[in-house]
Amino acid sequence: MASDYIIEVKDLKKSYKNQEAVKGVSFGIRAGCCFGLLGPNGAGKTTTVEMMEDILEPSSGQVFYKGSPITRSFREEIGIQFQQTELLNFLTVEETLKTFAAFYKNSLRLDKISTLCMLDSIGKQYNNKISGGQRQRLLLGLALINNPDLVFMDEPTTGLDPQARQHVWEIIKGIKQEGKTIVLTTHYMEEAQILCDELAIMDTGRIIAKAGPDELIREHCQDCPPSEQNLETVFLKLTGRRLRE
Ligand code: ATP
Fold this sequence. Notes:
Radius of gyration: 18 Å
Bound molecules: adenosine-5'-triphosphate
Mean pLDDT: 94
Largest sheet: 6 strands, mixed
Distance between the termini: 45 Å
CATH superfamily: P-loop containing nucleotide triphosphate hydrolases
Structural class: alpha/beta
Strand order of the largest sheet: 6-7-8-3-9-10
Order of helices and strands: EEEHEEHEHHHEHEHEEHH
Number of domains: 1
Low-confidence stretches: none
Number of strands: 10
Shape: globular
Oligomer: single chain
């Protein structure tokens, strides 16, 4: 029987010299879902996502894409919005999209990406003259260039002002409406609550909760006052309030 999941991880583990960063995580993500991976600093989110992206080799465990173990072509099929991507200062936004599109046999139409990612009005601006919010919109556009079914987004709104953050949220909703599956890591609980259909919360290398945001809130905030019935409360209840070093 074909897998229900567009991507599935089975018992993924990653050890470094002194530490087991990911201690065996398993989950599947349905096509069209926005899946959020949450957790305190050092929980193992980036390590897990990088193994899913085929950037980091797992110590053990497997990643399946569309029902089969990932192959070399997987990296060309997915989209990744990295937090840190160096953009060439002497290129405009439009030229940057064209340059990246040239790397792929099949790219999504650039006018479509430009509209979806709210880049139409800044196409002629140089990369070093755009704001932080515009830069994040461009990085999302670049993640879509090969028309991927699956897009990874690593803290896409970190450091943005409230307006810029809301624009990015609108873009992510638009990407979802295109039928794409999204894997999102974020430290903003409001963002996860608004955008994600399903969440996994990690701590110390393990998944400690997995469900939709409403379900998690129902389960963990029953006795809380209405103002505290939110994902932030769930997160703090599950991961504790102590300062992480
Ligand atoms: P953050 O929210 O701060 O990005 P995270 O949940 O993404 O944290 P990871 O970056 O996956 O966490 O790190 C998990 C653990 O593995 C941490 O304790 C980190 O110090 C450790 N770690 C990550 N990369 C390496 C590495 N290359 N060598 C050794 N230890 C590492």
